[in-house]
Amino acid sequence: MQNSQTNLLHLDRERVLLATLASKPSNALVDRNGLESLKGSGPSRLGTRGRAAVIGSGFGGLAAAIRLQSMGFETVCFEGRDQPGGRAYVYRDAGFTFDAGPTVITAPHCIEELFELSGRSMQDYVQLLPVDPMYRLRWMDGSSFDYVSDETRLIEQIRRFEPADVEGYRRFAEYSKRVFHKGYEELGAVPFLNFRDMLRVAPDLMKLRADRSVHGAVSRFLKNEHLRQAFSFHPLLVGGNPYSTSAIYTLIHWIERQWGVFFPKGGTGALVHGLVALFEELGGELRLNSPVGQIEVESSRNGMKHWVSSEGHARERFDLVVSNSDIHHTYSHLYRSHPASGKASRRLERMEWSMSLFVMYFGTNRRFDQLAHHTILFGNRYEGLLRDIFRGHTLPSDFSLYLHAPTVTDPSLAPAGCEAFYVLSPVPHLGRANIDWDSVAQRYGDSILASIENHLPGLQDSIVTRRHFTPANFQRELHAHHGSAFSVAPTLSQSAYFRPHNKSDSITGLYIVGSGTHPGAGVPGVINTAKATCGLVARDFGVVVK
């Protein structure tokens, strides 16, 4: 009953909020002063720069560290693990290279901009290889769909499934394009710190029917069920349920149509190392094996100071902190001595959190024909399975899978004649299904491999190395609340102003980046959180960028 009441409350909140805001005059706007891109020939000093600590070296943390260092802050990036990258960790087993986390790279301009801040070129640090098809989608009935960026080829695929849906797709693409212009180009790197920010955008969100779900929006244009799934699965890549994630996330389709999907030569880890090289060239300091245990805040004549205690280093003073750590961990643990910690933590605990993941990495002693770089393997159930993942309290016995085969694009990631894979299965987070993953992981992995065998005959006999990462690992190793893989869920009532803010409301000098703040998860998303957040830092510290 409590869950039902909570769901109704969220639904009513979205309807009332959007209806109310849509009636506000369009001149109820907030000043965007200081929130523009930091791109330019270099910063000019109006105030005194200080020392900045960045907690965590995921994509959000590294992007923030590069921006801060480019602005003239003395920046130290703390990483608790032995490699940079956060979720973009790298495993190396038996000659295979496995990227642990993000593997879908799109909107490459977000990354290029980080290099351009200091007059450099991304191409001198890392090479992005195009992936085509962007995804191959396969269903249990044997049908498949190559999801490509080229419109002519894409429409050919749609016509093969349902000729009547071709015109519907064209209308959906136009809708996705409009959402992209508003949700990504205009608002993707703009923070929402107060309710007036929502007043400014609410009429446009109403016109775009942001209150609808992604699946609901897609279903207005497409009638074939396979095609509805093909154009609505994207929220799963950022931790959302297609049946509850705001239709704003249909913009992902246009992002991929516009720029395509890429993969870094050498793996995602090569991109991480390119960003680290840039940060260090700018004078920044990365400290590995340096988990932060606590941050204490004290007032001084020059404002609030943050004392960072990390393993292996003396307690150090910083003028500001940008946390790329799990947002609940940031408030409940890192700032546990601050009076605002308890209230902020409890507020986060009342929010809806994204699902978790079971991820398995394996290498084979042979190659496979007709293999795509990214493959989505749909199971027999779609809506019912998603309901069990996002609302259920047990581990579903069936699954839909994302299969990553990077050696299709870059054979150097495995020994000659071999294939590297990882497979990802969305599962409930530990707050909903407190599963003993240490006991069930091996068996669950076996059942996944047996399922993939239907698509890749001979797979199981060819595996020479294998490891897995479970919700328990997300919780233990990444401090993820409930073992959630993508932080706070991307629902409408937890987006923009209603998402945890890029600048702390209660702790002066604390800023947030990563999937737990605006705009959210995904590689472009977390990199844009750094852009939004560092715009606030620039404003607060009097940095003017040419």
Question: How is this structure best described in words?
Answer:
With 546 residues, the chain is an alpha/beta fold. It contains 17 helices and 21 strands. The protein has helices at 2-22, 59-71, 109-116, 151-161, 165-186, 195-207, 214-219, 225-230, 251-259, 268-281, 327-334, 341-349, 383-391, 437-453, 459-462, 471-478, 523-540, and strands at 43-45, 51-55, 74-78, 90-93, 96-99, 128-130, 135-138, 144-147, 262-264, 285-287, 292-300, 303-310, 316-318, 320-323, 356-364, 374-377, 401-404, 419-427, 463-469, 510-512, 543-545. The strands form six sheets. It has a seven-stranded mixed beta sheet with strand order 8-7-16-17-18-15-19. Strand 7 (135-138) and strand 8 form a beta hairpin. Helix 1 crosses helix 6 (195-207) and helix 11 (327-334) runs antiparallel to helix 12 (341-349). The protein starts with a helix and ends with a strand. Mean pLDDT is 89; it is low at 1-47.
Layout of strands and helices, then pairs:
Elements lengths: L1 H21 L20 E3 L5 E5 L3 H13 L2 E5 L11 E4 L2 E4 L9 H8 L11 E3 L4 E4 L5 E4 L3 H11 L3 H22 L8 H13 L6 H6 L5 H6 L20 H9 L2 E3 L3 H14 L3 E3 L4 E9 L2 E8 L5 E3 L1 E4 L3 H8 L6 H9 L6 E9 L9 E4 L5 H9 L9 E4 L14 E9 L9 H17 L5 H4 E7 L1 H8 L31 E3 L10 H18 L2 E3 L1
Parallel strand pairs: 2-3, 2-14, 3-10, 7-16, 14-20
Antiparallel strand pairs: 1-21, 4-5, 6-9, 7-8, 11-12, 12-13, 15-18, 15-19, 16-17, 17-18
Helix pairs in contact: 1-6, 2-10, 2-17, 5-9, 11-12
